[in-house]
Write a structure and sequence with these properties.
The structure is a homodimer. By secondary structure, chain A is of the alpha/beta class. Helices cover 31% and strands 23% of the residues of chain A. In chain A, strands 1, 10, 11, 12, 13, 14, 15, 16 and 17 form a 9-stranded mixed sheet that branches. In chain A, helix 5 links the parallel strand 5 and strand 6. The longest helix of chain A has 23 residues. Chain A is elongated and about 70 Å long.
């Protein structure tokens, strides 16, 4: 089947570009002590997770218990939930998962530790945790050093298995590389490695020190003592990470149909914000010089052309570059793998 | 089951509020010649569509062929796709649907008319169309009057069944009612009714004249000659329509769990932009004075408290008012119907 025959709006992955990203990232980590545990939340595609593991990843990172369940259902048994969970239901599900897989979760407060401890007692399993430290994102995480050690002790006292330290530098993913920024990235890595060292000198093994994303992996992946990197967006890429200078190719587009035109300067596509995210900025048009996507409505994208652009005809097909892959993949249930304009494989996206 | 026991993030509908909206809108249309054909895209919930029909709606409006297929699969047989479609695949699916149901679609160009004509020939069915006129939204639609008549003739010549005129005043939904705005709404209705009159005086029956939304139904619903209104958001409501003064109650929230806190002024919820839309503005917190939702990340909502607010504890539950119902419903596969804090019914959302 040709690309143009896929029903729209459709999420398209260019397989050559995606596989190139996979190889380039595998090459980076190939010769290093630090390893890649790529994030699943960006693609939610178990077949891609397996490709990443075959390329050398040591397991998967994810954001939710649901994602961990999907990974375990698909046979992946070394997982980090790089996030806090609370209440009763999520800890119970995690405890159940932990009977058959290694699923680490992050902790940054005593309430959640008690919830996790109660759940693992109920399910007779062993929950593994990383202490999440705040390295500047100011979202979750405790202070590095003594506070992290106190929380690790509290977790141990409640019967949880402490595995190490995590810190996520989400605020630095958005900053293009520079010597100043890279120094701040290293400060974050240093806080993680030093906090892990403090645990170990207090008799608590902390072999896992996790951080980093597609914008910072090259810096934190080289920091001595950091053992794993969580980067995920590198595989599919998007306009955000292109603008930040990440050295990978965009492989993700949304295929759309032109449904209306008015004169040579106005067209409407059938991919609105229910098919492509506009949360962080508007998508852009692929291979259509002189044309600009100017607005997303629920079911429509508005395109303005400069009159010199190739004209658009209702019924014609257009590819749109994704601005933000994470939120866009979340809107779809499958990804169409295309090579040289031919559909090669359809990948289920799991929710 | 209590509200607090529902797994998070969960889309919650307050049944008393929703049913009140249903009754109030039914009362408005009860004594009028103009009828309601409510939009399905806001709730995507067949059980709600049936409630609307039992309350007097004459059928459903929707935005896509997929939504029309869902409605037909659920036994609803009078449908308006208030949108253009193009290419080959969508017209074929519409032609197939039209063998067993009345599914009108909008046209605003000759390409699509030829696509629709080819599809109905292939499927030996009869496609019904409304001519879409531009009444100021400047998205789709031809000019009112002679151009609309020319397009209706072109559709007839190609064997399509012309049923009337549609125009959507989306640009006016955002403007709070005032005598000036209402006059502009009436100008749009006038263009629709006059274009339909021009068709009829040229021998083309045009009994359907459709327009309006939750922000304008009260004005266009009273305009002589307008036969049906497409309002949909009135049922669930959201912060956008509250800010525009629509006389309905918000019934939709997302239930979230607190997963992290840092001191008395910072908390993190497990409902990010994958569970609640931030496309048109940030959601707000229900029943939490002094607290503000300040950012949505992919899987996190950041909450700032003023220190006087009731304190939040990891594991606790919070309800969040939806800012934009349409894009939020699109992120979920079920809606939990709650009355007085008790779960009463779970409604599947169809995609």
């Amino acid at each position: 089947m040709k690309l143009e025959q896929i029903k729209t709006p459709a999420l398209i992955v260019d397989l050559d570009a995606m596989e190139g990203n996979l190889r380039d990232m595998a090459k980076f980590f190939g010769g290093r002590p630090c390893k890649l545990r790529p994030h699943f939340k960006n693609h939610k595609t178990p077949m891609f997770a397996w490709q990443q593991i075959r390329a050398g990843a040591i397991g998967m990172t994810c954001a939710t218990v649901r994602e961990a369940e999907i990974l375990v259902e698909h046979g992946i048994s070394s997982i980090l939930i790089a996030n806090e969970i609370g209440g009763q239901e999520k800890p119970e599900r995690l405890a159940e998962l932990s009977r058959n897989a290694s699923v680490m979760v992050c902790v940054d407060n005593c309430h959640s530790i008690r919830d996790l401890a109660a759940a693992q007692r109920n399910r007779q399993s062993q929950i593994e945790v990383l202490v999440d430290i705040n390295i500047g994102l100011n979202r979750c995480g405790v202070a590095p050093g003594q506070v992290a050690l106190d929380l690790a002790r509290y977790a141990l006292e409640h019967g949880l298995a402490v595995r190490g330290i995590m810190g996520y530098d989400g605020h630095l993913q958005a900053v293009p590389p520079s010597s100043e920024r890279d120094e701040i990235v290293r400060q974050g890595s240093k806080a993680i490695v030093e906090s892990a060292g403090l645990l170990e000198s207090s008799g608590i093994p902390a072999p896992i020190r996790s951080t980093g994303g597609t914008g910072t992996y090259a810096v934190s992946g080289d920091y001595p003592g950091i053992t794993e990197i969580q980067a995920g967006s590198y595989l599919l890429m998007d306009n955000i990470y292109v603008s930040r200078g990440a050295p990978f190719q965009r492989s993700l587009t949304v295929l759309a149909t032109v449904i209306s035109t008015r004169g040579p300067k106005h067209a409407v596509l059938d991919c609105g914000l229910k098919a492509i995210s506009g949360e962080r900025g508007l998508p852009t048009l692929r291979d259509l010089p002189g044309a600009r996507l100017t607005a997303l409505h629920a079911e429509h994208a508005i395109v303005e052309l400069d009159g010199q652009s190739p004209s658009l005809t209702p019924g014609g097909k257009i590819e749109v570059w994704v601005h933000y892959n994470d939120a866009t993949v979340n809107l779809h249930s499958r990804m169409y793998g295309v090579r040289h304009g031919e559909l090669e494989e359809v990948f289920p996206i799991e929710h």
